[in-house]
Amino acid sequence: MAGRASQFVAVQLAGARVPPAGRGGAAGVKANKPLVLAALVLILLVGFGSGAAQLNADAIWTDELYSLANIGAFEPPYSLAQIIDSLAQYSPQHTPLYYFISAGWASVAGWSQVSLRVISLFAGSLFIAGLYRLCADLFGPGAGLTGACLAATSVFLLVAFHEIRMYTLMLMLTALHATCYWRLAYGRARGGGTALGFVLTAAALLYTHMFSAIMLAALGLYHLLFGLRPNRGWRIVAGWLAAGLLFLPYVPVVYAGFLEETSKPSTVSAAFAAPELLATLATLLGNGSVWICLLLCLLLLWRLWHLRCRAALRWLAFAGLMLGLLLVFNQQFRLIGLYRSRYLLILWLPFLALFAYAISAFAANKPLPHFGGGVWGRGLGYHLRKNSRSLFVVACLLLWSALGGRFQRSDDFSGYVGGMVYASRYPNLQHAVTGLRSQAQEEDFMLGFTGAEYFNSDRKHGVSPADYYTRAQLGIDGVFISERLNGERLQSALEEKLASHPFPLLVYEPYNPPENLDETRAALEVDYRACKVLVDSDWLFAQRYIDRALDCDHARRETGYESGIRLVDRFVQRDVANDRLRIVTGWEAPSEDLLTVYNVSLQIIDADGRNVAQQDRHIDAELLKWHDAELSTASLAAGEYRVVVIVYERDSMKKAAGIDVASGQTADTLPIYAFRIEG
Questions:
Q1: Model confidence at 17, in pLDDT bands (50, 70, 90)?
Q2: Average pLDDT for residues 600-605, to the nearest whole number?
Q3: Which of 203, 489, 590, 606 is the most buried (most CB within 10 A)?
C-alpha cells in the first residue's frame, strides 16, 4: 500500500484536471480517494517528521522565553486573567489565544520544551492538511497535493513547526477561514456549520496574532470588490462583523501595544523598505531562491493567460490585495524587519496555493515529445509521454526541496530566523532536565557552560533562557560561564557567578565538552570538594560539589519563620588563626513584599546572653539566596559563645518566631553554632 501510495503521490500531483473556468471547486475531477488520502498522509508525515526532528534539537530562544513567561512557567501556572494581565504588561502587541491554549496544554502535558513545542507542530501539520483541502476545493486534488508538498518542504515555514510561538496556529486558522469563505461565497455550503466556522475562525485569527487582521482585511476588500452576490454577500459581511464584536473587548490592549511597538526607534530603523520586503519575501517563498519564486510567478501568469481559470484569477486577486495591504502597512508603520521576517508567513497560504495551481496546471497541459524510433525509442517515448505530467511535478518538487535544503544550511538562513540563531550556541539543557529531574535538590546551584553569554541575561519578567531549565523545570538556581574563558578571566567569572553558593552542581555535555572544562574543575576544587556524580552518560555529566567547610554528607539544617521566610541552610566556619567566623546562610522569601519588611541579624552571644558582635542586613537581593558574612572574634575574652540568627521587622523591631525543622526548637533567637575561646 505504501509503495503504491508513493507512486500515486507523483501521479495525483499533476493528474487531476483543472476545474473549468467559472468553477471554483474540483467538480468533475475523478480521483481514487483512498490513494489520494494515502498520498496526503505521506506528505503530512514528511512535514510532521521534519518538525518533530527539531523539537529537542536546540534550546529555547528569546521569543519562546516570552511565551513561557506569559503563561506562568516560572510561577504557579497562570489563570486566563493572569495571562491577559501578563500580556498587557510585557507583550501588549500580542493577543492571547495561543497563550490560553499553551497554558492549558502545559497543565496536562508538562512544561518541557518538547511538550510545549508540540502545539506548533500539530498546528503546522493541520495547516498542510488545510492547504490541501483549500487547493483541492479550488483547483482539484492534484493542486491540493502539490500545495501540501510545497508547504511540507518550505524550510522557513518548518522553523515555525518547533517554536513555542503562535505562527503555525495563525496559518492553520487562515487556511480554515479561507476555506469557509470560499465555500460560503462560491460553493454549495448548506446548514449553519460552515457559517459558524467562518465566524469563529475569524475571531480566533484576531485573538492569535495582530497580522491576521491584514489577511481578513484583504479578504474583506476582495469580497466587497468581487464577491458580493445576492443572498450571500451581505451574510458574509455580517459574519465578519460578528467576529469583530467578539474581538472588541481586547482592542484597547492590542492597540496600545501596537502604538508602543511602532514607536520604538529600534523597530522603525530596522524595518524593510518596500523593495527589501519584496526581495525577502521572494527569497523565503522561493525556498531560498528569488529566481524560483519569480519563475513560479511567471508560470502562474502564463497558465492564467491560456486557461483563464476563474478560481485561480479570484485567488490571485485576493493574494495581490493581501500583499498590497502588507506593503502599505509596513511602509506606514515600519514594523517588519529582518528579525521579524516571521510576520511574512501570513502570505504563505495565498502564494503556496497559487504556486500549486501553476505547477499542476502547467503539467496537465505539457506532454513530452516523441523519442526516436525503434523498439527502445518507442518504449521510452511512450512511457515518458504517458507520465510526462508526473515527471514535471516531481522535477519541480525535487528542485524546490533541494533548494530549501541548501538554503537551510547557508549562513544567510540564520539572518531570517531572528534571535533563534543564538540558541545554536546555547547548551541543550533539556537533557540535563531529564537526567536530573529526580535527583536535583533545592540547594543545588547548576554550573554549566555556554557559547553565548546571552543565555544568562534576564529579559522581560526578569528571567533568562537558562532560568527556564533551572528554575522552571528543576526548581533550582544556576548560571553558565563562557566556554572560551581561561586564566584570570575564568577565575574572575567563577567568583562572580558562584558568589557564596556552597553547593555547585557541575553540568556539561560529554559529547561536546567545553574547551575550559579541566581548568574550570581545577579552579572549582580550590574552594569546593568534589562529591557525588549524579549522572554519567553519553549525553550528560553532572557532579555535585560542596564548600570545603562542609563534608559531602552534609545534612541541611532548615529554619522556618512565621512570616513565611525560610532559612534554607546555614553553616559556620571558624578561622582560629585569623580570629574570625565565616557565617553562610541561605534565604528564601515567598513574596518580594517581605524583602522590605524584615531584616536579619547575625550575632555572637556570650555565656551571660550579652551581644558581643553583630552584623545586620536587609533581606534583599544580596541575601537571597546565599549570604556570606564574617564576624571578628579578635576582641573576645576567654569563654563560651554562641552564634545566633534573628529575623525581625524593620520598623517595629519585633522578632519573628522561627522553628528549627530538624530539632523542632522554636524561638525568636535561634543558635546555629557554639565555640569556646581559650584563656
A1: very low
A2: 95
A3: 203
Among 429, 418, 484, 415, smallest CA distance to 452 is for 484
pLDDT band (50, 70, 90) for residue 30: low
What CATH code is assigned to 559-677? Answer: 2.60.40.2550
First to last CA, the chain: 94
DSSP string, 33-59: HHHHHHHHHHHHHHHHHHHHTTTTSS-
Give the list of residues 6+ apart from residue 633 with CB closer than 8 angstroms, or none: 574, 579, 580, 581, 604, 613, 641, 677
3-state class (DSSP) for residue 337: strand
Q: What would the mean pLDDT of 355-373 be, rounded to a whole number?
A: 67
Taking only the tens place, the pLDDT of each residue in 636-666 is: 999 999 999 999 999 999 999 999 888 888 9
Correct CATH for 426-547 of 3.40.960, 3.40.50, 2.60.120, 2.60.40: 3.40.50
Work out the pLDDT band at 22, boundaries 50, 70, 90: very low
Q: What phi, psi does 576 have (nearest 5°)?
A: -65, -40
Task: With CA atoms as reference, report the closest residue to 210 among 98, 101, 134.
Answer: 98
| Domain regions of the chain by residue span | 2-415, 426-547, 559-677
Three cell numbers at 301? 501568469
Q: How far apart are CA 49 and CA 507, in angstroms?
A: 30
Is the Cβ–Cβ distance between 293 and 285 less than 8 Å?
yes
pLDDT at 392 over 90: no
Distances (CA, A) of 386 to 56, 137, 644: 45, 26, 93
CA distance 171 to 345: 8
Q: Read off φ and ψ for residue 585, nearest 5 degrees.
A: -130, 145
